[in-house]
């Protein structure tokens, strides 16, 4: 526990950089300007992709999850409208389907935000924004990706506070009314 915890803290500290900060602000602006944010994460990146959508969609409904059926990714990307973006979460080793989907999306002229552990990720050449975390050579961890995802959601929430707070309050009231949550 202690060694794993220390390694996770090291990854978080080393992932924080001037480059990440600069790209983070570009990411937020791109998301806020997008018509729809299509989220893609396959295999080990599926969990962060689903988590990202679940957090964001509760107050920012312009999201779409592509991660559940990789056989239909190209069908779904072909239906993107102008102003839609692809948010890809992928760590090494990368899936061919994820790389091909990003290349296809780029070919259609859509912007891509990439959250990855290596700048050498092939999607980097297509990405408008690259959010890079530091990988561990001791253990696999999605904690840096989750930290970035949560920070994105918090920032989007702050920048859309006028509407997001109302939506979250309404959702909280409905969840209480139907005995889904308790205070």
How does this model look, in words?
With 183 residues, the protein is α/β, with parallel strands linked by helices. It is 51% helix and 13% strand. It is built from seven helices and five strands; from the N terminus they run ααβαβαβαββαα. The chain has helices at residues 2-15, 18-33, 46-57, 73-78, 96-107, 143-159, 161-177, and strands spanning 37-40, 63-65, 85-90, 111-116, 129-132. It has a five-stranded parallel beta sheet, sandwiched between helices. α5 (96-107) links the parallel β3 and β4. The radius of gyration is 17 Å and the shape is globular. The mean pLDDT is 96.
Could you give a quick summary of the protein structure above?
The chain is 51% helix and 13% strand. By secondary structure, the chain is of the alpha/beta class. The protein is globular, with a radius of gyration of 17 Å.
Binned, the helix content reads 40-55%
Ranges where pLDDT stays below 50 over 5 or more residues in a row are none
Whole-Å distance between the termini? 31 Å
The tally of helices reads 7
**Averaged pLDDT, please?**
96
β content, as a range? 5-15%
Key phrases:
51% helix; 5-stranded parallel β-sheet; alpha/beta; 183 residues; globular
Describe the secondary-structure layout:
Blueprint: H1 2-15, H2 18-33, E1 37-40, H3 46-57, E2 63-65, H4 73-78, E3 85-90, H5 96-107, E4 111-116, E5 129-132, H6 143-159, H7 161-177
Parallel strand pairs: 1-2, 1-3, 3-4, 4-5
Helix pairs in contact: 3-6, 6-7
